[in-house]
TrEMBL record:
<dbReference type="InterPro" id="IPR000182">
    <property type="entry name" value="GNAT_dom"/>
</dbReference>
<dbReference type="InterPro" id="IPR016181">
    <property type="entry name" value="Acyl_CoA_acyltransferase"/>
</dbReference>
<dbReference type="GO" id="GO:0016747">
    <property type="term" value="F:acyltransferase activity, transferring groups other than amino-acyl groups"/>
</dbReference>
<protein>
    <recommendedName>
        <fullName>N-acetyltransferase domain-containing protein</fullName>
    </recommendedName>
</protein>
<feature type="domain" description="N-acetyltransferase">
    <location>
        <begin position="37"/>
        <end position="192"/>
    </location>
</feature>
<dbReference type="InterPro" id="IPR038764">
    <property type="entry name" value="GNAT_N_AcTrfase_prd"/>
</dbReference>
Amino acid sequence: MRGAPNPTAEAPFTAADLGFSVLPDGGWRKPVGDRLVAFRPLRRLPELIPVEALQREVFGVSDRDLLAASALVTLPETGGEVIAAFVAAAPEPVGFVVGWGGYREGRPILVSDMLGVRATARAAGLGAELKKLQAAVALERGFPEMTWTVDPLRAANARLNLEKLGAVADRYEVDRYGGGYGAGLYGGLPTDRLHLTWPLHDRRVRDRLLGRTRPIVPADVSGLPRYAPGLAAPRALVPLPADIDRLLADDLDAALRWRLALRETLRTAFDEGYAVTGFVADRALGEATYVLERMPAP
């Protein structure tokens, strides 16, 4: 990462700062929407097996591509964790997040490998709460930074990762998992990914997690130019599909054209020193847009 937009550091936040109550069994609890949700780490093989079923349900992955319970059981040994969310008295989780501990360029970093939430539980923002809790646990264990990848065509993911969480991206990877990965969800498209970085000590991140910063709206970026190669502006816009799932269902060729166009645009922008730092949607017009910002040289 060349640098976050606001590198000013603040004191680490805790799960309690983010509204989570610590439970005697080592888990957490927090109201999410109109439900009281329990969160707990999963460390034993029997309790990790339902996470395999959730991966199939949410991502449509094959047995070859899912994260097996027998592999997930090792996560705590890396400093990572599988954190699951439960509602009411249901024994099965409705959501989960996976994190592996490791190093990048000699610095400790937590790789947030997968986040999945059952469709019936997404509207209240459970995915964001799982990510926030994962961040607090990462800080507690000595990881000042997190990273993960997302499909650049998914506007809903962009809103969560860029606006709610404050992550940034300046690296694009072509076909990370191969075209056969999660065909039911991705329609057989090349599985291109944006690499996101989340500096947890950054004031920009803390302000978003504590609700001090409102998400940007279309009026905030109305005067910005659309990105084109060679642009000298400090900020610029890049469009993406407002609803890629509808496009995958109705016009797969159009979805592929979006994939290839966004691939070329973002890779060029990153080479020219930009990073994706924001996202804005105009629901009335059915438009979605990335906000690029030119980063200082390393």
